Amino acid sequence: MSPPASLAEREAAFRAEVRLYCERELPAKVRAKVQANLFLEKQDYVDYLHSLIPRGWVAGHWPGTWGGCDWTPMQRFIFEEESAASGAPWLIPFGISYVGPVIFTFGSQAQKDRFLPTILASTEWWAQGYSEPGAGSDLAGLKTRAVRDGNDYVVNGQKTWTTYVQWADWIFLLVRTSEEARRQQGISFLLVDMKTPGITVRPIRTMDGCHHVNEVFFDDVRVPVANLVGEEGGGWRYAKFLLGNERVIAAETGKSIRQLEHLKALVAAGTGRARDQQVFERRIAEMELKLHALRAFCLEAARQMDGSAPPGAEASIMKIRGSELQQAIAEATIEWLGAQALAYRPSDVHRASPASPDGPAATAGFMREYLYGRAATIYGGSNEIQRNIIAKAELGL
Questions:
Q1: What is the pLDDT of residues 69-117, one digit of tens each?
Q2: pLDDT, tens digit, 9 for 90 and up, residues 293-338
Q3: What residues pair up with 152 in beta bridges, in sequence order?
Q4: Check: CATH 2.40.110.10 for 126-233?
Q5: Going along the chain, which residue ranges are E strands?
Q6: Environment class of residue 43 by beta-carbon count within 10 Å: exposed (0-12), middle (13-18) or buried (19+)?
Q7: Which residues of 99-132 are buried (b: 16+ CB within 10 A; e: fewer)?
Q8: Which end of the chain is more exposed for a tag (fewer CB within 10 A), N or C?
Q9: Are the CB atoms for 67 and 117 separated by under 8 Å?
Q10: Are residues 18 and 82 in contact, defined by beta-carbon separation less than 8 angstroms?
């Protein structure tokens, strides 16, 4: 009888299993679009999710009780890193990583029975209704109101920067249900059907010319009281829980690995500013060292993390370093391509395969990644806010 595998051996085996999935089961068309940094349509994400369902990996970090795999924080990190490095798309988190855990942690039994199965099956999509025109990183300043009227709440207000709500069946909202001296105490967490009368969605085109985000207006939208998660006025606690889950996966080391390999291949091929090759090779080496340091930090944090407790300042550090590194890689890539990257047309990234009017075919995708990636240090809580969290948690400031 062979001795039981050590923790390191089990982690290595799981990493190999994720790589095998990416090689054999990740849809080739989706992988090709991700590798080329093209804009992904909803069907691309659906195809990806459907390839995960047979393994039970759509929400592997969920408890087995609710259909997950009871992944440890380390397994979750390994899956996120390996799949992204291999060309898997962003595992859109709004249902899987955000509202799903809020529902099975704080929701009613009826909410668990109603919503968790459809999230796992990818038959209903969710959006996140947090940011407002006057309340982004200062989320406690939100103004969208929900007033109780019999068995309904009547919601009025506006949300903005709402990612992929144009594809969503449901949206979870932070709303103000009372005015308290401490602003956080009057916030509640509602689940809203996007087909409800009174909801208007208007697209916002981002710098890459694509439709990622939107503004959403709520005019006398009636939401059943049964769709309140937890207690009225408890929304801030649930929001903090959700944001903790969001920042655990914010380092995106797998994406940085993939993008850095793209840049290394460009420079090695001499495509672009060949006269500056030595300068760029040094620049790549510096970014690679930063990536190694970030990965070491993430791996250590994942080993120590208690999956049942909210993450500490480590999650903010991951978000800061990961987003800044992504931007640095994208910026270096565009600088290497030089003038070739200037001829950018959004239509070139809405294709099944890469195309560009100038330079390598992948040039348009690199520019799209650079332009959209400028928001990485803002969304999910700006890096300035993350630094405040670190200062408060670690320095007591």
A1: 999 989 999 999 999 999 999 999 999 999 999 999 999 999 999 999 9
A2: 999 999 998 888 865 566 678 888 999 999 999 999 999 999 999 8
A3: 149, 224
A4: yes
A5: 126-129, 145-149, 152-159, 170-176, 187-193, 199-204, 213-224
A6: exposed
A7: bbbbbbbbbeeebbebbbeebbebebbbbbbbbb
A8: N
A9: yes
A10: yes
Q: In angstroms, rounded to a whole number, what is the distance separating the alpha carbons of residues 139 and 135?
A: 5
261 belongs to the catalytic site: no
Where do the domains of the chain lie? Answer: 7-91, 126-233, 250-395
Cα dihedral across residues 127, 132, 136, 139: positive or negative: negative
At residue 313's C-alpha, the angle toward residues 309 and 316, to 5°, is 110
Position 373 confidence tier, pLDDT thresholds 50, 70, 90: very high
With beta carbons less than 8 A apart as the criterion, state whether 118 and 99 touch.
no
User: Is residue 116 helix, strand or coil?
Assistant: helix
DSSP string, 32-85: HHHHTTPPPPHHHHHHHHHHHGGGT-TTTTS-GGGT-----HHHHHHHHHHHHH
Catalytic position from the list 11, 132, 215, 246? 246
Question: Cα-Cα-Cα-Cα dihedral of 111, 112, 116, 117, to 10°?
Answer: -100
Confidence of residue 273 (pLDDT cuts 50, 70, 90): low
Angle in degrees, CA 34, 36, 37, rounded to 5: 65
CATH 1.20.140.10 fits 250-395, yes or no: yes
Q: CA dist 365 to 210, 277, 351, 355, Å?
A: 12, 22, 10, 8
The tokens describing 93, both together, are 């988190």
Q: What is the pLDDT of residue 67?
A: 93
- Residue-wise pLDDT for 149-204, tens only, equals 999 999 999 999 999 999 999 999 999 999 877 888 899 999 999 999 999 999 99
Q: Which of 29, 19, 16 is nearest to 353 (CA)?
A: 29
As a whole number, mean pLDDT of residues 112-130 equals 97
C-alpha dihedral sign at 59, 65, 67, 70:
positive
Return the structure tokens found at 357.
């009017």
This prediction's pTM: 0.92
Spatial separation of the C-alpha atoms in residues 214 and 163, rounded to whole Å: 6
Contacts of 73 (CB under 8 A, 6+ apart): 61, 248, 302, 303, 305, 307
Q: Is 157 helix (H, G, I), strand (E, B) or coil?
A: strand
The conformation of residue 208, written as its DSSP 8-state character, comes to T
Q: Is the Cβ–Cβ distance between 248 and 78 less than 8 Å?
A: no
